[in-house]
Structures are given as structure tokens and as C-alpha cells.
């Protein structure tokens, strides 16, 4: 996902955003509370709406995604209100009782760098990923960019960065390079700049997400998974030696979260990577040994519309191996619907309870390390 306000609004228009948000249950069950921790919400006003605050106080929200729309002088205080709402919620008390850890709400944005993919405009990094990767000393440039991103996030009470992009772009002007979002045309170039970017943020207690596994570097400029299905016919050897090599290096170095791509890679599976157990479980968890939290791209993206309504997609995503489901349509109702879907699927046995509990454990461990 591109995480721009334009794409969010476009997705809401194309795929039916609604503003009617159900009230939370009067007395949420334990399963309601835990399912809520698996869902990341967003909203269509500059400040968090009362519906979202109410759901957070009730313990039914795992986190929020912020776009450019939400970043203003009042954002730090407004995020403080959300954090306080979660701290007073029964979900926090439940997780502390069950897992022995204190947890914070996840507040995330996409502070990659440059001018387009940088919601917090008054902070860095000012350089795009491509400029960082092309620096005389990409490691130093990556470290500096990570420091600047951390400063930006902390200034706005944000604890998760949905960056960096780990894709290796194949040619100038393609999908990742069009806005300078890739660090280079070789795995080494990307690793040399991106891994220091990750480390610098983690050293400052920012939770970092690498994306879009296994990589979008081969996508043409028009192959936008936000809008339509995308198939990348990359040979398996190339996927191994180029695309996933960057993710493997970041995972070895240490990373908190991984976001999969919604593209299809026929060399491994005929399902989008984020809906594929082969990619999420066999490759990411198995081959690369990732033990952290996985988070989907936008659940309303055009690339996965062929796989059913939002309920069907959410279940497919969770069963494939995604711990957090991103309801990023600027629509609080979408998050509510996904939470209710997870509850129903666990009750019916469609989602394996052991898998659900393991995913919850990973989320709790992650959130126990959030700086705010």
C-alpha cells in the first residue's frame, strides 16, 4: 500500500466506505477484547472521532493508522487521548493478566522520506530512499534517515513506522522508483541503506515494519496493487537472490514487523503473497525464521477484491498468517466489521484458536516494547 490520503479516499470511493459505526458491546467478552487487538483502524476526520475513542476505551482497538490528513499541530495531544483511552480499557488489564506484560496502543504512519511519502512534513527524512541509497556512504545516510524518522514519530506520539520499503527496483521510473521509494537496483544497495535505517529507529524504541514481502521491485509503474490485481512473473531463483535477500538481511539484523505484498508471484503460489500460507508460513516464518508480528496491507485494496467481501478477505488474511489486519479505508466501521468477523470465525472454528492465541502473544510482546 502507498499510504497516501489520495489512495485512501479513492479506495473508500471505489469500495464503499460507510460512516455508520455500531456502538461497542455493553460488556465485551474476552474474545471480543482480544480480537480487537488484531485490528488497526483509521478514520476520515483530522482528529480521532468519538466513535474511535469510545471503541478504544471499550478495549476493542489494537491501533490506528495515520495519513497526512491526521497530522497537524494537535496530533500529539490527540494521540495522547487515544493512548490514555487504551490505558483505561479492559483490554489492557486483560492482556496484563493473561501475559504478564503491560502494553500500549499501536499508533503508526508511513514516514519513509522525501516529499510524498512523509506525512510528518516538518521533520525528516527529507531524502527519498533512492537518494539515501545513492549517497557516498549509504550506511551513514540510512542511519541519519532513521534518526530523523524517529525524531518525527516521537514528536507526534507515534510508535510504529510502516517503513522501509525493501524492494529492489529493476529499472528507472518503475512502480517503486517512480517516487524514489527503493534504495537501489541491487540487493546489496538496498541492504546497505535500509538495514541502518531500521537499526537507527529500533535503537530509539520505534517499532519498525519492513515491506512489501517478498518485494515489489519488478512491478511496472502501472502495476498498483491498491487499484487492481498484479502478477509478477519473477523466476524463483531471482526471487531468492534479489527480492527476498533484502528481507532476509533485515530479519537477521532485527526487525519488529513485516508487511506482505498483495501481488501474486506464480513461482511460489497463485494467491497474493499476503493471502498465501506458502509465502507467510513456509517462506517468511520457515525459510527466513521471522518470529515477529505480521501486518496486512490495506484490506480494501483492488488487488484482493476478487477474493470476496471484507469478511472473506479478513479471514483469508488471518489464516494465511497475518497477525494484524489493517482496516485503512478511513472508515471506523471497517475495523468494527473485521473485529466481529474474527470473533465469529474463532467461535466457529474457521480460525484455529491455537493460531489465534499465538498471534495474540506476538502482538502483546510487540506492544510491550512501544515507547509510549
TrEMBL record:
GO MF annotation terms: hydrolase activity, hydrolyzing O-glycosyl compounds
A Gene Ontology biological process term: carbohydrate metabolic process
Record bears the keyword Lyase: no
Signal sequence annotation: 1-20
SUPFAM superfamilies assigned: (Trans)glycosidases (SSF51445)
Keywords, comma-separated and alphabetical: Glycoprotein, Glycosidase, Hydrolase, Signal
InterPro entries in the record: GH (IPR017853), Glyco_hydro_3_N (IPR001764), Glyco_hydro_3_N_sf (IPR036962), NagZ_Beta-hexosaminidase (IPR050226)
Annotated ranges, domain Glycoside hydrolase family 3 N-terminal: 101-365
Superkingdom of the organism of origin: Eukaryota
UniProt similarity note: Belongs to the glycosyl hydrolase 3 family.
Protein name: Glycoside hydrolase family 3 N-terminal domain-containing protein
Amino acid at each position: 500500500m502507498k499510504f497516501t490520503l489520495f489512495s485512501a479516499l479513492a479506495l473508500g470511493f471505489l469500495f464503499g466506505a460507510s460512516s455508520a459505526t455500531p456502538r461497542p458491546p455493553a460488556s465485551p467478552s474476552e474474545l471480543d477484547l482480544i480480537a480487537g487487538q488484531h485490528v488497526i483502524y483509521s478514520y476520515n476526520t483530522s482528529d480521532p472521532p468519538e466513535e474511535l475513542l469510545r471503541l478504544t476505551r471499550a478495549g476493542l482497538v489494537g491501533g490506528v493508522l495515520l495519513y497526512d490528513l491526521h497530522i497537524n499541530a494537535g496530533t500529539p495531544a490527540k494521540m495522547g487521548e487515544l493512548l490514555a483511552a487504551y490505558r483505561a480499557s479492559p483490554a489492557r488489564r486483560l492482556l496484563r493478566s493473561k501475559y504478564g506484560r503491560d502494553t500500549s496502543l499501536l499508533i503508526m504512519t508511513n514516514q519513509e522520506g522525501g516529499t510524498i511519502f512523509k506525512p510528518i512534513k516538518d521533520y525528516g527524512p527529507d531524502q527519498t530512499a533512492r537518494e539515501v541509497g545513492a549517497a557516498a556512504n549509504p550506511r551513514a545516510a540510512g542511519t541519519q534517515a532513521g534518526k530523523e524518522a524517529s525524531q518525527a514519530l516521537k514528536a507526534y506520539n507515534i510508535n510504529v513506522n510502516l517503513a522501509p520499503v525493501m524492494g529492489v527496483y529493476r529499472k528507472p521510473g518503475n512502480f517503486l522508483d517512480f517516487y524514489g521509494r527503493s534504495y537501489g537496483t541491487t540487493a546489496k544497495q538496498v541492504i546497505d541503506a535500509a538495514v541502518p535505517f531500521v537499526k537507527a529507529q529500533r535503537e530509539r524504541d520505534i517499532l519498525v515494519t519492513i515491506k512489501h514481502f517478498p518485494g515489489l521491485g519488478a512491478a511496472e509503474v502501472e502495476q498498483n496493487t491498491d487499484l487492481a490485481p498484479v502478477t509478477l512473473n519473477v523466476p524463483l531463483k531471482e526471487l531468492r537472490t534479489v527480492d527476498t535477500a533484502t528481507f532476509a538481511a533485515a530479519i537477521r539484523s532485527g526487525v519488529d514487523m513485516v508487511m506482505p505484498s498483495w501481488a501474486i508471484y506464480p513461482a511460489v503460489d497463485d494467491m497474493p503473497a499476503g493471502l498465501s500460507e506458502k509465502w507467510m508460513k513456509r517462506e517468511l516464518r520457515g525459510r527466513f525464521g521471522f518470529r515477529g508480528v505480521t501486518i496486512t496491507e490495506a484490506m480494501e485494496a483492488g488487488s484482493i477484491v476478487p477474493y470476496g467481501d471484507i469478511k472473506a478477505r479478513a479471514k483469508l488474511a488471518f489464516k494465511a498468517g497475518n497477525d494484524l489486519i489493517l482496516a485503512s479505508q478511513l472508515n471506523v466501521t471497517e475495523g468494527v466489521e473485521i473485529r466481529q468477523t474474527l470473533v465469529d470465525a474463532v467461535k466457529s472454528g474457521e480460525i484455529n484458536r491455537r493460531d489465534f492465541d499465538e498471534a495474540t502473544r506476538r502482538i502483546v510482546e510487540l506492544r510491550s516494547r512501544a515507547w509510549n
